[in-house]
Amino acid sequence: MEAKQTNFSILMFPWIGHGHVFPYLELAKNLSNKNFDIFFCSTAVNLSSISDALASTSSTVSIQLVELHLPVLPELPPHYHTTKSVPPHLMPKLFETFQMSTSSFSDIISSIKPDMLIYDAFQPWAAKIASSLGIPAVHFATSGAAPYSFYLHYFMSANLAFPYEALYVRDYERKALEALVLSDQRDKKKDQDSGFDHFSLSCDVVLMRTCRAIEGKYIDYLSVLCKKKVVPVGPLVTHAYSEEGKHADIMEWLSKKNQFSTVLISFGSENYFSKDQIVEIAKGLEACDVNFIWVVRFPPGESFSIEEVVPKGFLDRVKDRGMILQGWAPQAQILEHPSTGAFLTHCGMSSIIESIYFGVPVIAMPLKLDQPMNARLLVEAGAGVEVQRDENGGFGGADVAEAINKVILEETAEDMRLKAAELSEKMINEEEDAVNDAADQLHRLCMEHKQQK
Fold first, then answer.
1. Contact 232, 430 (CB under 8 A)
2. Taking every annotated instance into account, which residue ranges of this chain make up the domain Glycosyltransferase N-terminal (predicted)?
3. Which residues constitute the domain of residue 315?
4. What CATH number does residue 332 fall under?
5. Which pLDDT band holds residue 193 (cuts at 50, 70, 90)?
6. How many distinct structural domains can be found in the chain?
7. Is 337 a catalytic residue?
8. DSSP state of 362
9. Tens digits of residue pLDDT in 159-184
10. Active site residue: 18, 20, 81, 443, which one?
11. Most exposed residue of 168, 211, 212, 270, measured as fewest CB within 10 angstroms of its CB?
12. 20 is a catalytic site residue
């Protein structure tokens, strides 16, 4: 991108989930280096994490943090104003409370008067507020083009088959989706937005966390469906800047393992398995002759020891080839390590992007929303397999073991590693051009809007 004399200001406003905040932050950092002055709006608990992340980064980006004030309810104190720490039963209340922050947001955008708003899927009302003030608004989607094109097609033309057979929903996934949609419609007031208004309200373009290497045809089809130019912004991988030696024990253990011999098992910061499901995963790991790092999480407010939820004697039987971590692990650092050969994941967008970015094949165990489409996208690309499930979505230890063996031990493993490495190279090669193109598009919109005033 050519150097521009005009600096425009952008107000970034993500949903308060961890998987949204940090892609927005990465995009903010990139745009701050492209002649944009960035204001970043979120809740105090999220801004604390963001401030720590910015302090530990080696770059000299300048981003002004702006606090969004949510109503403080007795059951939802400020430290719960992020999806990462809120107990699952309070998630609907958090979403409801976030929708009540329009007054705070109106005050913020009226005070800052940015040249542009970049907003998330859960607050199309923010785009309406910006428009009422004469400020152009652009949607940035942190989910990929494959799920969005599939579900938007389903929303618009449920009786017509989706044009790409690799993407589909199973009966139990369809029922869960329909139940969610019906619940959503029941909970909405008549004057609130429909499920895809965050696309229609976006000014001229939609930014998307993806790259053409893995989603080219789905990007094109989504552009047709939403009648907007979908602009990939690249992978936006958060590179770790942790203190030296902070995770030395994990990396030292991993370094003693053979190349491609280890599976990382992690299902994101907001997904939890039942005790029975954890037992089946453990059975699958025990049945495989592979090394593993397993990140086990329990819902906030629930306290268990690992020994309480895995089969009796499991820890002793796998102690030489398995490491179990409770709560959190340096995911990107583990995926980047040459001993890592596969990633057993729920297939949230951040996880599949990181896996492909570091050239690691995926063992998919999708749970909800965009995750089934993300899983099937990687299967279609030849960079992963999906764990077999029954008609109700259940799985057994044998299903887990079979999928792990395909990606680590069997003849198919080498082909998947080569495909993942090929996609990684393409993704990294696109990265800089994607950021430059997105910056050019935003600068053009700001300039056009300024000239129209």
1. yes
2. 9-236
3. 248-426
4. 3.40.50.2000
5. very low
6. 2
7. no
8. E
9. 889 999 999 999 988 888 777 654 55
10. 20
11. 168
12. yes
